[in-house]
Amino acid sequence: MRAAVQAGPGQMQIREVARPVPGPGQVRLRLEGCGVCASNLTPWAGPDWMQFPGDPGALGHEGWGVIDAVGEGVSGLAPGQRVAALSFRSYAEYDLAEARNVLPLPDALAGQPFLGEPLGCAMNIFRRADIRAGQTVAIIGIGFLGSILTRLATEVGARVIAISRRPYSLELARRMGAAETIPMEDHGAIIERVKDLTGGRFCERVVEAVGKQWPLDLAGELTAERGRLIVAGYHQDGPRQVNMWLWNWRGIDVINAHERDTEIYMSGMRDALEAVMSGRLDPVPLYTHHFPLERLGEALDATRDRPEGFLKAVVTMP
Asked: Which protein family is named in the record (predicted)?
């Protein structure tokens, strides 16, 4: 099979490698595509801890496709089924997944991409946030995740204030239901604007979906007394400092909404599938940039540089 192999910092090659063989309890997927995650960007830059060349297909974890073969002891799944899966070498034509980490897709989604892992992640964050009707919710960072959370929060009756640096993202937030949008430019001006919009109370829920120090600082400032700050951004570039005096004084709850339990991931993926099938969520328009496997490096660069109109890159297989 063909698989992408990272050969060095910012260097991706396509190599011919052996097709994996499913072991007991595993299935093999013939991949249709794989989403590109912002968590790929630190490895893509080639930090000191990376070893090159990387494993074939490594970093790809948002894949979907068709079951191609099943291992011993697998029941309820068969070749020909279209599925999304939790797997971890999906920048390739084939990948393996544990059968328990596979989500069958209905025929109604035939021909449509279904990025199970990031959609499931969004649903799990939304669950942990406990957003309710009548609350004011600030969402800092309107990328793929922030836009989905905007839609979900609006749908349950919350008032969303979307904060992001790109005009495109703010316009997208409005389309997803945000009541107010604020450019992420001046720290103090944002705080004053949210204070005005909330009558001085600030927000019962604040979701930080950027993964940088300044948005995390801002999130604390925008959280109301006894409110909840949800850390959804992936902070992968070093330690963070927090204003613990402010967090103490306001008595806020702080939730790290990242999951590592695969059963919880799968629960989120099932919730995402239900949301799509019921019409509550349509993620397809959010997949703004499509690349063949041979151009994975360009897809990663676009995820880093975020050109005009960019939200989410998807790599497709022939």
From this structure: Belongs to the zinc-containing alcohol dehydrogenase family.
- Look up the CATH number of domain 2-115+287-316: 3.90.180.10
pTM, 2 dp: 0.95
Please write the tens of the pLDDT for every residue from 98-149. Answer: 999 999 999 999 999 999 999 999 999 999 999 999 999 999 999 999 999 9
Distance CA 165, CA 142 (A): 8
Q: Give the strand pairing for 63-70 and 26-35.
A: antiparallel
Structure tokens at 273: 């599938």
pLDDT in tens, 254-267: 999 999 999 999 99
CA 261/CA 266 separation, integer angstroms: 9
CB-based contact 37:314 (threshold 8 Å)? no
**Contact 177/155 with Cβ under 8 angstroms?**
yes
CATH top-level class for 129-256?
Answer: alpha beta
